[in-house]
Specification:
80 residues, alpha+beta, four-stranded antiparallel sheet, 2 helices
């Protein structure tokens, strides 16, 4: 799922379901690993998308500026 220009995926790993952010060169960074199943992972990723897009629109900035100044902070709050 593309969220404001960054790519995120849900993936089933040996330890369970995770949400990952795709970094450069096909490297993935696990950002949430406390998910019970695939449906829970997809639902949480959609919630994260909706929240970040709404906050970006509320602030009236472009996605690049949003990630630079605010996005990562809110993303971490949404994961907890």
């Amino acid at each position: 799922m593309n969220i404001l220009g960054k790519q995120f995926i849900t993936e089933h790993m040996p330890q369970g379901w995770v949400i990952c952010e795709e970094l450069k060169y096909g490297v993935f960074n696990i950002i949430d690993k406390k998910l019970s199943n695939g449906k829970h992972a997809k639902t949480k990723l959609q919630y994260i998308n909706d929240s970040l897009v709404k906050d970006c629109q509320k602030r009236g900035v472009n996605p690049k500026e949003y990630w630079h100044y605010n996005g990562t902070k809110l993303l971490m709050k949404l994961i907890k």
